[in-house]
Amino acid sequence: MPQIHFPRPLINQILQQAQQAEDSEICGLVSARNGQPVRCYPVANTAGQPEQRFLMDPQQQIEALRQMRERGEELFAIYHSHPHAPALPSATDLREAAYPDALYIIISLATEGTLEMRGFRLQGGAVEDVELVVD
After folding, report:
1. pLDDT surpasses 90 at 132
2. Which of 28, 42, 124, 135 is in the most buried spot, having the most CB atoms within 10 Å?
3. Which residues contact 83 (CB under 8 A, 6 or more apart)?
4. Assigned CATH class of 3-134
5. Where in the chain are the domains?
């Protein structure tokens, strides 16, 4: 299984965002410089049923991508949470995965006392597990 190293402050920022939302899915982007994740860009979830799915606010997503370009960063990962489901891609996640080169990170709040965070490559309906190593 491939490994990807993440700085602890970045992981903590994403987990904190997930914990604060409780019953709604959170979402956002992670940028990288030279292939190393460097920054988190939270994006509002505008889905009609945010407890069951996520839909990134288009303007915020465009703005995040613009900021990445200005900073010399590239899109590295797309993250979202599952408040009541395991940290596994849903059928909707697979169907809507539009960035085949991006890592997909899913955080589950459906675990007792701890958050589960997993990484995946989603390409053409196939799911590949990626081990997230916290530095």
Report:
1. yes
2. 28
3. 21, 22, 23, 24, 25, 51, 109, 110
4. alpha beta
5. 3-134
